Amino acid sequence: MNILAATAPASLRMLLPDNAFDHGFMSRVIIVYADKKMKRNLFDETFEDGALERSLLHDLRIMADDNFYGRMVFEDEVRKAIALWDMSGGKPAPTHPKLTNYNERRTAHLLKLCMIAAVSNGNSLTITMKDYQEALGWLLEVEAAMESVFKAMTTGGDYEIMKEIWHWLFSVNQRNQGAGITESVFIQFVQSLVPAHNVERFVTIMVKAGMITKKLDAYFPLEWSS
Fold this sequence. Notes:
Elements: H1 9-15, H2 24-27, H3 50-64, E1 73-74, H4 76-87, H5 100-103, H6 106-122, E2 126-127, H7 129-146, H8 148-155, H9 158-175, E3 181-182, H10 183-191, H11 199-208, E4 212-215, E5 218-221
Parallel strand pairs: 1-2
Antiparallel strand pairs: 3-5, 4-5
């Protein structure tokens, strides 16, 4: 079974429990992450490449042909290169703790990408050095940004709450003409957003992050921008 899916980091955080990456399914998933937004002129005419479309359809028909099947083989130099890469630890490998189980399947991912490259490059069941190098390039390019998805998932949760706390504190402080918010009122507001056992953690993180500060028995917002 193959799955090609897309979602936002915030949705991924809601769908997956904290321990999802400790289990087999997510170790079999290659996460492709990008935070760049592409802008285009709304009034540009749609560009159509008829030759490219015909070429893609031709390749898809060949790949879907009932006669295009069988055992894929690796050229000798490719087998040696993959074995060397695998035995050396597949450097550079992701270091995020949530990708520990994923790292154990990286070689399997590379082999599958080699198959895709071989079919894409020449509709062949023989995997060449060119196919291997292209597949490894795909894998390393994706992995270079893969760890960023966990930061994006986090900013969709705790970070959003901290932003809300800061903006509330900033607004009330302005109405109080800079007198700050008493600790009891501030804690009560934070407690309305997070579980009681997490209140101290949120306040401590915001202080260390330079979002707020405490003076005597009052809290003040610092010059901070989201």
